[in-house]
């Protein structure tokens, strides 16, 4: 898909168009809006990132990862279990504090940002967690509305009962995108595995992100939902110009939806290639290992 | 803040025998209000300390209290005496089991004696003084313990301690509560000085006089309200006395010395 | 993924790693407990053998004396009202204090230590001193009693609230952080929803505790059921005391019931 | 999975469903709280304005009287020893009682109600009565004091243990059930590991509480720092009282520290 | 694989051979042991099962599911998200109380069993949960040892420090089967998604189950681990004659490892067929639905 960069679309305004109302009914296909001038061509740059859980003596999980992701790219991060994929993704918005190295996102040096700046940056980045991380005692709708925390403020975004009507409706639209409107009132701990994953996705959509970081976003989804979600991501990339960084254990998804594949093995990047002419069997070697853990 | 003209704030602390007042002060308050024409706010206070502080920070106008408390009040706030309340049979005693080994005060040497409540006139100071008067030095010839009366009596029945200090009224109650056990008294103190009504120094002379007269003239009526319940008839017979002198309380001050507390004696010489 | 065999593929140690310090501390603590047990001198023979005395005590308590039922209930209601006000105020102050005192949510570790200390201070300074303070400040009466209850409640609730917040699952908090939510946002969206059952339990316990231990109200001339009970005991009216205790017990059970009912709705 | 549009795809109600009963109860409770506030008569003017009086109080407390430091520390240590024994015993009894009283783990709902009641009973019966009971049973002294502390601890810990166990995540418990684990197995393998931080917090709070509120020890002639403090207050030795409070405060902080340290290891 | 029933193997003794020591090094291929006479030919029969969360008025999640599973069969349960797969599996050992209908497992009527009987039955059934359900504050090894609760008693199986050496070693063998021995001492909340899933599988193996119920057992596993786990299951079926009931969103796995496919749609069985001649596209229709939730 790195060839398809020409067809990438950008919203006219620096913000992202309202997802509520008719406008959110995206029509697939090229859109003529342009990338705003202030959007850097490199949206994510990771430089020799080292991460340890625990102090100096403990083993490094990421052992010096470097990575550059261009604006509008879709990067599939692959690797066997425990290779460090989730850890890498969580380092990007500094949910984990890297031990060494640097990360820049959307042109900002993540490591040097202070509280407020970091919050502002994070609010522009959608994150779908491998374990979904929903607030289980709240309703699905409230969980989705949480996505608006970055722009709406703590009180208006903390519970659906307190949220202004626009947010509630926007959240319903996000739920509609993952076909979950009828469960909006359900408590988040009464969902099936796939439903809960979709709520997590809807919550990330609610952020109107510029970068979408998704950790195995379709692992619990049935095949057709999985494809719909991946298509949705692709459409957002085309229409809103977002950048997508996702992990997956489906090589097929990685090849079909990624412009590029980055493979990790035991905390090191062992492969970084455009997907253009890759076949599934070209990637099998990533998983051959005795030291997988 | 000076007290409002219409309202007097009236506290009662730990007056032995006035426990009933602490729970059912309604009739007493109404009577006092009717007799004086003031609105009466009434506070039964469990803690001497709190009452003293309330009086010295002028949140309270009058306090009805016991002799030991009076000495403390006097030493810590410049309080004025309104009237005294003389009650019959108000004395401290040392109670032991009638069938026990203790027959005389001398037998108490080296034994445990319990006092009901720290600093209380008739449960702590009085009994300790009674023993001292008969030659037993506090905390030297016997081991004093502060244990609440309920527990102390049970412990004495068990034999864990040998004597309990209390006043005459208490012993009557206890005899009724333990009909199967016989108690006897091995030491008896002098009659204790009167309970006393004092006023904060911020109280106006007019109000002071009004209250004083009311208590002297209508002491009996007020008392009648206190002892409305059948059980409390035995507290009848008290008198309100107009002439109270501070030196009457030197006996109490010496009691404090007896138990090793000297700080309240500073006013003796005044 | 072939199964390796034999007992020699490194079964982890039974005890994990123990630092010498931790070991020394553990042994020291255990020794202290043993010494203390010895010091206290509990023995089974002692405990059994109070039978007849206890039977007498119980017989003195039953049947409960119902003659003063009405004034006791009125007094209980008044006490409960003061307890409600004091507890509500205390909980209101506890919420922000707990945030400041929680290891995960305090803006700064030093602040956390300070607020932990403050809360411990509220607990440690005894009721009588608080009673004095409030008597000096607002005079004798219910207002001072309520404030004393408030302080008690803060010392208790703020600590347990803080601890509940520390125990809350990290997942949702991480999600909220990733969305750019601020401290308040994380609290309201990820922490409070998780700890609300624990808050209810703690809060209603505080209410019940305030009602039960209303002796502090007596200290400041606010009356209360605690005084009634004290007077009953002073007069050795064990049957009246029994009746008062039973009334309090029923109230306690009702508060427990309310707590259970509220928690069932959110658990 | 096409996005439906417009505001009309059934946004859930803001308030969810509220039964008339719940509504009535909520309004009733709110009204009661308001009435109570009114009844108590708190006011801001009252609260501010105690300044000078408080300054005097504080000036009487400082500097703390250090002359009796040694006896006070000895007394504190003795109290702490009794508190340790009483709390350890109390916690030991609380563990099984809490299981019986927890909604999820009690073998039978009726049993649960019974044990909840029993625990509430332990709490409600005042210390003075327990003191009577234990003095009759084991006589005056530390043994009775320890038992009184034990009862206090059970009334507190068993309730909070039960509540923590009710709040524990169901997942691991379901897994253990699926493996054919019995009640005990589920408790030890899935419940206790989850609630252990909460148990530590509750248990060490109980220890601290027992030390602080050691007045109960005085009730049974076991001495203790509580009596020292009471005497100091009763004789208006505020500077001595202040010293005693500071010593207790330091002990409380140490227990808090231990609690934090233990919890950090398991959290 | 229903044709391969002939090659199914049985342990000689009613119990299952010790998994520790050299014996656990299974050699793939036919084994000559026979099925014990007391093993019923039908190991699982579900009859018109209805399940509601909540009382009478609430909607049924399972709307009358009937199912018969023969001894040694491998059944793949398919269905879109929220179809009721997990719910059905959890009803089998009565982790959920069905509202109507009956279940029998290993010849016993699950609905009429009392406490002790139910425990005994459950201990013979391995269960891998979709959400893994590990005791996160305990070590990986302790979690695996929990699998022995049914036979070893509460105290010996609750923590690795208290377990007898045989159990500890058997647990290490189970971990070895999922290549996780080097994480045995790690706390279970410090695992990657795939590692945690493998611990859940090892725990189920530790039960020496006669039936293995696995709810999306490989959803978080990388492709090669996923295949190894499925192969492991297949080998256990061959060698120990266990019956396998699993759900999956990988049609390939379902067809390769299942003897039979059972498809659920909105709480009803809509397909129940041997996999012998099925192709993936024959199953796509299962996921076509607008009322998926
Ligand atoms: N809190 C932690 N403490 C110590 N080690 C950890 C912690 N969290 C994860 N790890 C280890 O870090 C490594 C990388 O974990 P990570 O979650 O990034 O793997 P992953 O590539 O996402 O794997 P998966 O495909 O299974 O999700 C793993 O070996 C894991 O055991
Ligand atoms: N506790 C609950 N209360 C109410 N409804 C529930 C509860 N748990 C699950 N459900 C609903 O039951 C339905 C079936 O859930 P189940 O978990 O069985 O789905 P599933 O087929 O396993 O889906 P997935 O593939 O997403 O795991 C879902 O619609 C879900 O929302
Ligand atoms: Mg991962
Ligand atoms: Mg499922």
Automatic annotation (TrEMBL), chains C, D:
The chain crosses the membrane at residues 21-40, 80-103, 128-151, 186-207, 214-232, 238-255. Residues 76-259 form the ABC transmembrane type-1 domain. It comes from the Bacteria. It holds the Pfam family BPD_transp_1. It is a multi-pass membrane protein. The keyword Lipid biosynthesis does not apply. One of its GO terms (cellular component) is plasma membrane. PROSITE patterns: ABC_TM1 (PS50928). One of its GO terms (molecular function) is ABC-type phosphonate transporter activity. Keywords: Cell membrane, Membrane, Transmembrane, Transmembrane helix, Transport. InterPro entries: MetI-like (IPR000515), MetI-like_sf (IPR035906), PhnE/PtxC (IPR005769). It is found in: Cell membrane. PANTHER family: ABC TRANSPORT SYSTEM PERMEASE PROTEIN P69, PHOSPHONATES TRANSPORT SYSTEM PERMEASE PROTEIN. Belongs to the binding-protein-dependent transport system permease family. This is Phosphonate ABC transporter, permease protein PhnE. The gene is phnE.
């Amino acid at each position: 898909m790195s060839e398809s960069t020409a067809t990438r679309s950008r919203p006219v305004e620096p913000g992202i168009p309202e997802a509520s109302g008719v406008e959110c009914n995206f029509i697939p296909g090229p859109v003529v809006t342009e990338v705003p001038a202030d959007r850097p061509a490199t949206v994510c740059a990771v430089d020799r990132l080292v991460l340890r859980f625990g102090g100096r003596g403990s083993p490094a999980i990421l052992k010096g990862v470097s990575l550059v992701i261009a604006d509008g790219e879709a990067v599939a991060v692959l690797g066997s279990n425990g290779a460090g994929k989730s850890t890498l993704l969580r380092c990007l918005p500094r949910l984990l504090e890297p031990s060494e190295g640097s990360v820049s996102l959307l042109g900002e040096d993540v490591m040097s940002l202070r509280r407020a700046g970091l919050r502002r940056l994070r609010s522009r980045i959608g994150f779908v967690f491998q374990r979904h991380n929903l607030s289980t005692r709240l309703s699905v709708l409230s969980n989705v509305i949480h996505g608006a925390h970055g722009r709406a403020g703590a009180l208006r975004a903390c519970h659906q009962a307190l949220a202004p009507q626009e947010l509630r409706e926007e959240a319903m639209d996000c739920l509609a995108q993952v076909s979950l409107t009828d469960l909006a009132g359900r408590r988040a701990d009464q969902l099936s595995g796939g439903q809960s994953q979709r709520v997590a996705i809807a919550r990330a959509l609610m952020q109107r992100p510029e970068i979408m970081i998704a950790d195995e976003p379709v692992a619990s989804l049935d095949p057709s939902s999985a494809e719909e979600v991946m298509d949705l991501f692709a459409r957002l990339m085309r229409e809103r110009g977002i950048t997508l960084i996702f992990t997956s254990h489906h090589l097929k998804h990685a090849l079909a939806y990624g412009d590029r594949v980055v493979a990790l093995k035991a905390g090191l990047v062992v492969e970084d290639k455009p997907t253009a002419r890759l076949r599934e069997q070209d990637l099998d070697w990533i998983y051959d290992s005795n030291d997988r853990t | 803040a000076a007290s409002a003209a219409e309202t007097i704030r009236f506290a009662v602390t730990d007056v032995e025998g006035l426990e009933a007042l602490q729970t059912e002060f309604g009739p007493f308050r109404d009577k006092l209000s009717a007799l004086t024409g003031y609105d009466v706010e009434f506070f039964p206070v469990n803690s001497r300390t709190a009452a003293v502080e309330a009086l010295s920070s002028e949140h309270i106008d009058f306090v009805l209290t016991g002799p030991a408390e009076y000495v403390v009040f006097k030493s810590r706030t410049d309080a004025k005496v309104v009237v005294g309340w003389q009650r019959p049979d108000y004395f401290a005693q040392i109670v032991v089991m009638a069938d026990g080994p203790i027959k005389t005060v001398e037998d108490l040497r080296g034994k445990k004696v319990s006092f009901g409540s720290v600093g209380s006139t008739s449960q702590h100071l009085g009994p300790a003084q009674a023993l001292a008067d008969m030659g037993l030095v506090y905390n030297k010839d016997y081991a004093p313990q502060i244990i609440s009366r309920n527990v102390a009596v049970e412990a004495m029945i068990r034999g864990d301690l040998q004597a309990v200090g209390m006043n005459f009224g208490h012993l009557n109650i206890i005899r009724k509560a333990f009909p199967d056990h016989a108690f006897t008294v091995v030491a008896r103190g002098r009659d204790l000085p009167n309970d006393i009504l004092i006023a904060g120094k911020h109280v106006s002379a007019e109000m002071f006089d009004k209250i004083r007269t009311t208590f002297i003239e209508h002491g009996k009526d007020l008392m009648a309200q206190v002892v409305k319940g059948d059980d409390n008839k035995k507290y009848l017979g008290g008198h309100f006395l107009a002439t109270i002198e501070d030196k009457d309380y030197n006996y109490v001050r010496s009691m404090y010395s007896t138990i090793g507390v000297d700080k309240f004696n500073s006013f003796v010489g005044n | 993924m072939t199964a390796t065999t034999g007992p020699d593929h490194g079964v982890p140690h039974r005890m994990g790693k123990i630092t010498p310090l931790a070991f020394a501390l553990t042994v020291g603590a255990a020794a202290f407990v043993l010494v203390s047990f010895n010091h206290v001198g509990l023995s089974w023979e002692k405990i059994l053998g109070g039978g007849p005395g206890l039977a007498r005590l119980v017989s003195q308590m039953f049947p409960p004396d119902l003659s003063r039922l009405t004034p006791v209930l009125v007094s209980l209601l008044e006490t409960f009202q003061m307890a409600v006000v004091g507890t509500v105020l205390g909980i209101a102050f506890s919420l922000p204090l707990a945030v400041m005192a929680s290891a995960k949510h305090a803006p700064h570790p030093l602040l956390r230590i300070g607020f932990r200390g403050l809360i411990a201070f509220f607990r440690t300074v005894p009721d009588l001193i608080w009673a004095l303070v409030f008597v000096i400040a607002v005079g004798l009466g219910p207002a001072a009693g309520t404030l004393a209850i408030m302080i008690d409640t803060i010392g208790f609730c703020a600590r347990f609230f803080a601890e509940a917040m520390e125990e809350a699952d990290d997942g949702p908090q991480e999600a909220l952080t990733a969305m750019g939510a601020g401290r308040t946002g994380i609290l309201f969206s990820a922490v409070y929803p998780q700890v609300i059952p624990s808050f209810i339990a703690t809060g209603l316990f505080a209410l019940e505790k305030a009602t039960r231990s209303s002796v502090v109200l007596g200290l400041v001339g606010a009356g209360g059921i605690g005084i009634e009970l004290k007077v009953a005991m002073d007069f050795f009216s064990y049957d009246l005391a029994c009746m008062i205790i039973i009334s309090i017990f029923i109230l306690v059970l009702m508060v427990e019931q309310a707590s259970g009912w509220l928690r069932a709705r959110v658990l």
